[in-house]
Design goal:
Layout lengths: L1 H17 L8 H4 L5 H6 L2 E6 L5 E5 L7 E3 L1 E5 L2 E3 L2 E3 L9 E4 L2 E4 L5 E5 L2 E3 L2 E3 L10 E5 L2 E2 L4 E3 L3 E6 L4 E3 L1 E8 L4 E3 L1 E4 L2 E2 L3 E6 L3 E6 L2 H7 L11 H8 L1 H4 L19 E2 L4 E3 L3 E2 L4 E2 L4 E3 L2 E2 L4 E2 L4 E3 L2 E2 L4 E2 L4 E3 L1 E3 L4 E2 L4 E3 L6 E3 L4 E2 L4 E3 L5 E2 L3 E3 L2 E2 L2 H5 L2 E3 H5 L2 E6 L2 E6 H18 L12 H4 L3 E6 L14 E4 L1
Parallel strand pairs: 1-3, 2-4, 3-6, 4-9, 5-10, 6-11, 9-12, 10-13, 11-14, 12-15, 13-15, 14-16, 15-17, 16-18, 17-19, 17-20, 18-21, 23-26, 24-27, 25-28, 26-29, 27-30, 28-31, 29-32, 30-33, 31-34, 32-35, 33-36, 34-37, 35-38, 36-39, 37-40, 38-41, 39-42
Antiparallel strand pairs: 1-46, 2-47, 7-8, 21-22, 22-45, 41-43, 44-45
Length: 473
């Protein structure tokens, strides 16, 4: 393990320099997080598809237990059970449009991960950065359990457990546990645990802070210790269910799915679960005794148990849904936790939006009307009064709106429109509208994906590291 320890030293030293203004020492977070055995015992999976060009380069790195897709370069890094999703990489000749500007690609886009430690992290490459459209980079970054890096280049960043950075170019910053940020750019900034912050500087800002005591019941993280709380307990309780899926390697064709749908072989379907046409079930998703109607999706690290999704539903990365009935086109944001009552499920009406990092844990029956926005923490009808608003009311806002702990400023119609457009993009990209010929997306293309196993050194000074790898299409 001598060489892995050297890699860790370099990562810690480099990131601490980046975070010197914030005065955070990341060494205490990762020093004893992984045992030697863990890094040496797990293989990595590399996914390729006939629809895309592919390639992976890996040097002086460990990618133990990770799932990697697309064109990717990994140098001097440790990725442990991390998902790198590169199915939306841009290709040479495409043009990235940014507001009224255009940036053509002179080469194929690649994901570049260097000097970084990513622990059970989800990476999705859909990037909007016009300065370097050929490279989606994650440099000198440490990310903890169940964090999401979504279309967000990173340089010198620390992400705590269950945090999400979404479509934000992030530099020399920290994001606390269960915090969510979408701000375009983030530099020399500390985002507090439990803060939900979205801003489009010229149009709107949404800002909410979870109550620390309540949040601590669901997610709490301390340096040098594994995160704890209800969300962590749920994930731990399902670990054994995934072992059979990772005992073999194959193709998505092996998954039983109706026309146009795809069930990733590294997901788990348990009990009586229905999968409709054009449904996408991503890797590490868990479904039990649930119904997914036409065009619905369960993205990476989702958990859907004893629930019914009518169709065209989006359950974003890390979303948890238990004992709930969702009408059509309900959006459930990143790392949200929805739990109804076993005998009286949570009801969410058609077209409603559950903000990222929302906790709905019912103590009494609650029904969220159609076309509503909800956020924060909801356990009863009184909570819903201060953590929700109809989308039509929000669209009429021009200025400042304060409801409970939430503060909105700007143009409500612009906020609502942006969310609606993003939901439609997700459904379209995932193939929800596939008619058998047109509008193919990830669900249809992934049916032809296959996987290769990559193995680490099992012992000696390189124990846990992977050999240098260069695979090209």
């Amino acid at each position: 393990m001598k060489e892995i320890n050297e890699v860790v030293e370099r990562i810690v030293g480099r990131l601490n320099i980046h975070l010197r203004k914030i005065n955070l020492n990341v060494d205490v977070y990762i020093r004893d997080l992984l045992s030697h055995d863990q890094l040496a015992q797990y293989y990595a999976l590399y996914c390729i598809s006939v629809h895309d060009s592919f390639g992976i380069e890996c040097n002086r790195s460990s990618i133990s237990g990770s799932y990697i897709q697309g064109r990717c370069v990994i140098d001097d890094s440790i990725l442990y059970k991390t998902d790198v999703r590169g199915d939306e990489l841009k290709n040479r000749g495409e043009v990235l449009h940014y507001k009224d500007l255009a940036s053509p690609l002179f080469g194929d886009e690649r994901i570049v991960i260097r000097n970084s430690f990513l622990h059970r992290t989800l990476i999705h490459n859909y990037s909007h950065v016009p300065e370097h459209p050929e490279r989606f980079y994650i440099l000198n970054t440490v990310s903890m359990d169940h964090a999401n890096i979504h279309g967000s280049p990173m340089e010198g960043v620390f992400l705590d457990a269950f945090s999400t950075v979404d479509h934000t170019c992030c530099k020399a910053s920290t994001v606390g546990a269960y915090a969510y940020v979408q701000s375009g750019e983030l530099t020399d900034t500390r985002i507090e645990p439990g803060r939900i912050f979205l801003t489009d500087t010229d149009r709107f800002t949404f800002d909410y802070m979870h109550d620390a005591e309540i949040l601590g019941r669901y997610v709490r993280a301390k340096p040098g210790a594994k995160p704890q709380g209800i969300l962590v307990d749920l994930m731990e309780s399902l670990k054994e269910r995934f072992e059979p899926a990772f005992d073999a390697v194959g193709s998505c064709l092996a998954g039983s799915a109706p026309p146009g749908a795809c069930v990733n072989p590294y997901s788990v379907l348990h009990g009586e679960t229905h999968i409709g046409k054009n449904v996408l079930v991503a890797q590490r998703a868990y479904l039990e005794d649930s119904w997914l109607g036409k065009g619905a999706n369960a993205q990476e690290n989702c958990c859907i148990i004893h629930s019914h999704l009518d169709g065209f539903n989006v359950t974003a990365h890390g979303g948890k849904i238990l004992y709930a009935h969702l009408d059509e086109k309900v959006f459930v944001g990143f790392n949200s936790f929805l739990r109804g009552l076993p005998d009286q499920p949570l009801r969410i009406g058609e077209g409603s939006i559950v903000m990222p990092h929302t906790i709905i844990d019912l103590q009494e029956p609650v029904a969220i009307p159609e076309d509503h926005l909800v956020w924060g923490y909801i356990s009863n009808s009184r909570d819903l009064e201060t953590h929700g608003i109809s989308l039509s009311q929000l669209s009429d806002v021009e200025g400042t709106l304060e409801i409970g702990r939430m503060r909105f400023t700007g143009n409500g119609a612009a906020f609502t429109s942006a969310f609606r457009e993003r939901i439609e993009h997700i459904l379209d990209a995932n193939g929800a509208y596939f008619d058998g010929v047109r509008n193919a997306g990830h669900a249809q293309k992934s049916r032809l994906a296959c996987f290769y196993i990559l193995q680490p050194y099992p012992y000696g000074p390189k124990e846990g590291l992977f050999p240098s790898i260069d695979i090209r299409s």
